[in-house]
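Quick one, C-alpha cells below. Sequence please?
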C-alpha cells in the first residue's frame, strides 16, 4: 500500500477520520500479512473507530492474530467481520484494556469466550462464575480462568450491555466465586487442616456490598470453629493456615500475574489480631472494644465462602450490634471525627486528581450514606443494605434524604464510579487517580461515550459531578431536618419529628427538641428571609456539628439572625461572601466569649465577611479612632462608653481571628505555628487596652482641665501588659508617673494626677454592656500602701534607696503605654540600670529570687488545684518559664542587648542566640509557655471568664481540646500531652533557675 512521496493514502485519511491518533503506525499494522484478508474491510475500520482507543484496539488485535495457530487465525478474522456481537465485544475490550489485550495475546483462544451468549450469560451470577472457574486446580490456572471470566464481564460493560451497578455486582460475584475456588485449592493442598475446622469467609467493604471495582483489595474477615472432637486451639491453627494459604493464592504474583490483594485488616485488632477467630471471640471483641468505624465497616458484611452456616451465624450475630451502634456512648464524637474528611495524607500535587478521597469524591457519598444508615437503620430495616446506591434509594423513599438531592447524588456517584472502572480497566491496576496524560484522558472520555472533544467533555463532566457531591454530601444530613419543621416539599416523604431528633442527637446536638424549635423559627414561612435561611442552614448546621457545642452555635445564630434579620445586608453577606457564613459558624459554636461580645453589637458580624476584617488594627489606628471619638463626645462618660464600644468590637475581631486560625476553615487550614497565634492575641489585646487607656485618659483630662493637665502624665505597662502578652481575661498592670509642668506646684500637680487616675479607673469600670477594663497598680513602690501615682523624681528616690530585688524583676516588663511619651521614655531610662544591673546579679540577689519563687509555689497555688495542670503557677507553666527567662535577663541583660525586651519569647530566643541556654532547652521552655498561654486563652474563650486550669465540665473541656487542635474524644491525650510538655519544661527550670547561679 504505497503512495507517491508527499501524498497521503486514502487509508491514512480514513484512519484519521475513524479516530486513530497515529494513522501511519495503524496503516503499517493493517499492511501486515496477518490481516491481509480483512485490511480493506470497511466494517473492521468502522468497528475499530467506535472503540475507546482505536490504535490500542488494532495493536491488540494484531497481537492476538499473530499469537494464534495458523489454522485458527482465519477463523477469528472471518468471525470478526461477519459477527457484529463478537466484533463489538472483542474490539471494545481491546480498545479499553491493555491488560486484557495482554491476556488474550498470551491465551489467544480465549477470544472464543466472547463469541456466543445464551440469555443466562447476559447476567451471570456466582454459580455461572463458579462454573467458569471449575477447572482451576492451582494458582496459575485460577488466574487464567479468572481473567477469562473478567474478559466476558468487561465486554458486557464496555458495550453497554450492563450498567454500572450490575457491573459492580458481577465483579463482586466473580470475587466470591474466586474466593471459593482459592479456598478449595487450599483445602485440597491441606486436607488434614480442612478436616479439623469449619472456616467461613465474610466479605467486607465493596465486595460485601456487591459494588466492587475492577481492581480493589477484597476485604474479608475469617470466622472459624472446631469440628466435633477437635481441640479448639489446634482447629484455629488449622483454620489460620487455610486462610493464609487462600489469601496467598489470590494475592501472590506468578507468571500469570496476580488477581487482587485479599485484605483481612478489618478484623478485630487489625493486623495485630489473630487472622481467624471463633464466633464467640468476635462477639466478645465487638461488644467490649470495637470502635464506631468498625460497626460502620460491618454494615457491608456478607458471608461469601467456606462454611455457609457459620458465615450466616456471624452476620446474624453482628447485625444487631451494627444497627445499635448509634446508641453507643462515644457515637457522637466518633461520628464528628469520621465526618472530618482526612486528606492530609494525599500529596498536594495529587489531591485534585483524587477520584475517591479528594473533595467531592466517592468517599464523600459513601460515608454520608453509611452514616445516615447507622443513625436511622436502628428503627427502619429498609435501610439495611450494603449497596451505596440501594441504600441511597431507600433513604430517599423513607424521607431521610430529599428525592431531588438523592437523584443528583445517584447520578454523580454512578458517573464517578464509571470513571473509576474505566481508569482501572486499562491496566488492571488499583488506582483512584485521574490520569494527566492527554492520550489517557482521551481514551477515558471516549470510553464514557464522549466523542466530539473527549478531554474537554470529560473534565467538564467530572468537575460538575464532583461539585454536586461537594455541595450535597453535607446538605443531605440537614436539608430533611428543615423540611421536617418547615414542611416545604409537598408530596415528598418527610422526616418525622422523632427521626429528626434522632439525627440531630447523632450529630452532636444535646437538646434536639430546642434545635428543632430554632430551625422552625429560622426557616418557616414564605418570606425571602426564610428562603435564604433555608439555603444557609444545611451548611451551617454541618459546621455547628463539627464543633464542641453545636447547640450553642445554633442558638447563637438564631439570636444574631433575630437581631439583624431585618437589615438588608446581613443575610446577603452570609449568602454571598463565602467565608462569612463559615467564620460565623466557627465563632458562634466555639465557646461563650466571642458570641457574648458579638451579641452586644451584632453588626460586628460584618467583620467576618471582609478579607481584611480579621487582621488586628495597629495601635496608632486604634488610638486615632479612640481619641477622635473622645473629641466628639459631650462628656467623659459618653466618651468612654464609645471607647469601650471600640474595645468590645476589637476584642471580637481578635477572638474571631484566634478561633478561626485555631480551627481552620474548609479553604484555609488551621494555623500550625501556635506561638504566632499566642503572639498575635497578646499584641492585639495589649494594643487595644493601651488605646482604651489613652482614650480614658484624654476623656478624664478634657472633662476637668480641657486640653492640658497641670502635670505631664504617663501610664507605664507592667506584667503581661508591658510584655505584650495579655490574655483575654488579664487585668492591665500599670504604674502611673507624672512630672509637674513649669510653674505648677508639686501639690497641685499631685492632686491633678491622682484625680485623673481615680477618674480613669471609674470610667473604665462603669457598669455597661461592654466588658470592663480593670487597672491594677499593685506593682507600684510600697504596693497597696504606697501612693497611687508618683513623680519621676519620687520614683528615682525610692528605687535608689529602697528598691528590692523583686521590684527590679517586675520592672523587666516596664514599657510606656499611654500619655506623655517623653515622660514614659524617661521612666524607662530611669529603671534600665535596675533591671539590667551592671555585671549582673550578686549571689544574694539570686538566692532571694529563688526564695521568692519557691514561696510563691507553696503559698499561691489555689487549694485543691492540680499542680500538673495549672497553667500559671503549676509545674512547667507560665511562671516557671518567665522567672527562668527573667533571671537570665537580669544576669546578662547588661551585656546582651537582645535580652533587653519586655517579651518572654523574644528574651528566650535572644538568650539562646547568645549561647546562654542550649537550643533544645530553649525550645522546651518555649513550647511549654506557648501551650500554657493557649490554655488560658482557651478557657476564657470557652467559659467567658478567666481561669488558669482546664474546665471540669466535659463539654467545656472538649471545646478547649478542639481549640488546641485535638479531635473529639481525645481530651485524655490533651491532658497527657500538657503534663508531658510541662514536665519537660520543669526539668529545664530545675536546672537553669534553681541550679548554678552563673
Amino acid at each position: 500500500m504505497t503512495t507517491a512521496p508527499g501524498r497521503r493514502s486514502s487509508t491514512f485519511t480514513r484512519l484519521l477520520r475513524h479516530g486513530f491518533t497515529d494513522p501511519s503506525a495503524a496503516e503499517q499494522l493493517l499492511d501486515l500479512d496477518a490481516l491481509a484478508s480483512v485490511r480493506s474491510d470497511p466494517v473492521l475500520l468502522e468497528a475499530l473507530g467506535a472503540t475507546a482507543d482505536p490504535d490500542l484496539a488494532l495493536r491488540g488485535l494484531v497481537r492476538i492474530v499473530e499469537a494464534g495457530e495458523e489454522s485458527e487465525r482465519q477463523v477469528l478474522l472471518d468471525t470478526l467481520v461477519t459477527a457484529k456481537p463478537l466484533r463489538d465485544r472483542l474490539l471494545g475490550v481491546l480498545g479499553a484494556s491493555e491488560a486484557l489485550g495482554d491476556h488474550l495475546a498470551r491465551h489467544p483462544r480465549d477470544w472464543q469466550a466472547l463469541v456466543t451468549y445464551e440469555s443466562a450469560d447476559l447476567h451471570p451470577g456466582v454459580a455461572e462464575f463458579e462454573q467458569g472457574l471449575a477447572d482451576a486446580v492451582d494458582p496459575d490456572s485460577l488466574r487464567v480462568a479468572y481473567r477469562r471470566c473478567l474478559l466476558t464481564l468487561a465486554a458486557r460493560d464496555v458495550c453497554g450491555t450492563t450498567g454500572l451497578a450490575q457491573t459492580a455486582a458481577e465483579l463482586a460475584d466473580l470475587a466470591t466465586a474466586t474466593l471459593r475456588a482459592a479456598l478449595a485449592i487450599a483445602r485440597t493442598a491441606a486436607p488434614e487442616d480442612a478436616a479439623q475446622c469449619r472456616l467461613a469467609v465474610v466479605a467486607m467493604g465493596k465486595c460485601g456490598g456487591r459494588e466492587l471495582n475492577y481492581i480493589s483489595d477484597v476485604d474479608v474477615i475469617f470466622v472459624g470453629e472446631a469440628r466435633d472432637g477437635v481441640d479448639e486451639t489446634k482447629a484455629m491453627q488449622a483454620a489460620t493456615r487455610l486462610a493464609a494459604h487462600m489469601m496467598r493464592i489470590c494475592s501472590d504474583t506468578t507468571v500469570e500475574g496476580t488477581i487482587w490483594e485479599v485484605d483481612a485488616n478489618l478484623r478485630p485488632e487489625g493486623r495485630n489480631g489473630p487472622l481467624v477467630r471463633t464466633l464467640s471471640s468476635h462477639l466478645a471483641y465487638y461488644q467490649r472494644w470495637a470502635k464506631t468505624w468498625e460497626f460502620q465497616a460491618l454494615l457491608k458484611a456478607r458471608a461469601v465462602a467456606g462454611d455457609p452456616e457459620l458465615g450466616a451465624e456471624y452476620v446474624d450475630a453482628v447485625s444487631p450490634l451494627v444497627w445499635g451502634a448509634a446508641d453507643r456512648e462515644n457515637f457522637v464524637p466518633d461520628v464528628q471525627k469520621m465526618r472530618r474528611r482526612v486528606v492530609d495524607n494525599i500529596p498536594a500535587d495529587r489531591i485534585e486528581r483524587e477520584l475517591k478521597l479528594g473533595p467531592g469524591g466517592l468517599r464523600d457519598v459513601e460515608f454520608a450514606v453509611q452514616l445516615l444508615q447507622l443513625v436511622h437503620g436502628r428503627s427502619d430495616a429498609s435501610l439495611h443494605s450494603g449497596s451505596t446506591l440501594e441504600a441511597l434509594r431507600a433513604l430517599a423513599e423513607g424521607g431521610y434524604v430529599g428525592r431531588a438531592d438523592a437523584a443528583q447524588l445517584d447520578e454523580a456517584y454512578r458517573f464517578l464510579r464509571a470513571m473509576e472502572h474505566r481508569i482501572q480497566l486499562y491496566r488492571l491496576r488499583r488506582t483512584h487517580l485521574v490520569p494527566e496524560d492527554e492520550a489517557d484522558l482521551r481514551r477515558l472520555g471516549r470510553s464514557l461515550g464522549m466523542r466530539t472533544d473527549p478531554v474537554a467533555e470529560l473534565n467538564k463532566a467530572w468537575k460538575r459531578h464532583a461539585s454536586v457531591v461537594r455541595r450535597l454530601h453535607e446538605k443531605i444530613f440537614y436539608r430533611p431536618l428543615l423540611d421536617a419543621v418547615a414542611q416545604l416539599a409537598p408530596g415528598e416523604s418527610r422526616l418525622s419529628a422523632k427521626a429528626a431528633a434522632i439525627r440531630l442527637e447523632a450529630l452532636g446536638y444535646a437538646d434536639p427538641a430546642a434545635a428543632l424549635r430554632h430551625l422552625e423559627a429560622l426557616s418557616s414561612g414564605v418570606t425571602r428571609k426564610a428562603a435564604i435561611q433555608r439555603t444557609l442552614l444545611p451548611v451551617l448546621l454541618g459546621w455547628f456539628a463539627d464543633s464542641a457545642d453545636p447547640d450553642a452555635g445554633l442558638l447563637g445564630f438564631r439570636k444574631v439572625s433575630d437581631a439583624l434579620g431585618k437589615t438588608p445586608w446581613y443575610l446577603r453577606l452570609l449568602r454571598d461572601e463565602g467565608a462569612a457564613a463559615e467564620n460565623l459558624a466557627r465563632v458562634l459554636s466555639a465557646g461563650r466569649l466571642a458570641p457574648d461580645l458579638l451579641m452586644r453589637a451584632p453588626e460586628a458580624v460584618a467583620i467576618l465577611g471582609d478579607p481584611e476584617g480579621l487582621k488586628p488594627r495597629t495601635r496608632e489606628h486604634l488610638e486615632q479612632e479612640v481619641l477622635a471619638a473622645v473629641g466628639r463626645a459631650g462628656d467623659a462618660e459618653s466618651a468612654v462608653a464609645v471607647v469601650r464600644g471600640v474595645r468590645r468590637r476589637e476584642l471580637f475581631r481578635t477572638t474571631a481571628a484566634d478561633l478561626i486560625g485555631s480551627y481552620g476553615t474548609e479553604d484555609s487550614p488551621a494555623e500550625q505555628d501556635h506561638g504566632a497565634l499566642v503572639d498575635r492575641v497578646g499584641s492585639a489585646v495589649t494594643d487595644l487596652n493601651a488605646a482604651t487607656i489613652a482614650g480614658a485618659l484624654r476623656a478624664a483630662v478634657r472633662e476637668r482641665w480641657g486640653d492640658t493637665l497641670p502635670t505631664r502624665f504617663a501610664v507605664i505597662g507592667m506584667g503581661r501588659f508591658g510584655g505584650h502578652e495579655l490574655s483575654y481575661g488579664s487585668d492591665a498592670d500599670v504604674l502611673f508617673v507624672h512630672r509637674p509642668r513649669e510653674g505648677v506646684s508639686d501639690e497641685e500637680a499631685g492632686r491633678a494626677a491622682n484625680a485623673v487616675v481615680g477618674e480613669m479607673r471609674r470610667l473604665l469600670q462603669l457598669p455597661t454592656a461592654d466588658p470592663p477594663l480593670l487597672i491594677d497598680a499593685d506593682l507600684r513602690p510600697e504596693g497597696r500602701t504606697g501612693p497611687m501615682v508618683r513623680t519621676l523624681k519620687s520614683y528615682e528616690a525610692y528605687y535608689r534607696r529602697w528598691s528590692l530585688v523583686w521590684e527590679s524583676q517586675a520592672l523587666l516588663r516596664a514599657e510606656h503605654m499611654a500619655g506623655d511619651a517623653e515622660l514614659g521614655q524617661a521612666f524607662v531610662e530611669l529603671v534600665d540600670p535596675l533591671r539590667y544591673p551592671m555585671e549582673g546579679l550578686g549571689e544574694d540577689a539570686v538566692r532571694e529570687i529563688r526564695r521568692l519563687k519557691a514561696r510563691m509555689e507553696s503559698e499561691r497555688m489555689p487549694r485543691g488545684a492540680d499542680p500538673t495542670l495549672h497553667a500559671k503557677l503549676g509545674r512547667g507553666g507560665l511562671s516557671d518559664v518567665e522567672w527562668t527567662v527573667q533571671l537570665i535577663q537580669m544576669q546578662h541583660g547588661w551585656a546582651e542587648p537582645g535580652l533587653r525586651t519586655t517579651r518572654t519569647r523574644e528574651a528566650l530566643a535572644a538568650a539562646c542566640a547568645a549561647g546562654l541556654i542550649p537550643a533544645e532547652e530553649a525550645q522546651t521552655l518555649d513550647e511549654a509557655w506557648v501551650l500554657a498561654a493557649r490554655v488560658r486563652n482557651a478557657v476564657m474563650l470557652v467559659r467567658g471568664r478567666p481561669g488558669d486550669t482546664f474546665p471540669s465540665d466535659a463539654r467545656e473541656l472538649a471545646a478547649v481540646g478542639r481549640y488546641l487542635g485535638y479531635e473529639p474524644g481525645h481530651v485524655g491525650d490533651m491532658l497527657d500531652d500538657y503534663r508531658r510538655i510541662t514536665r519537660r519544661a520543669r526539668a529545664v527550670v530545675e536546672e537553669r533557675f534553681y541550679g548554678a547561679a552563673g
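The mean pLDDT is 91. The two ends are 96 Å apart (CA to CA).
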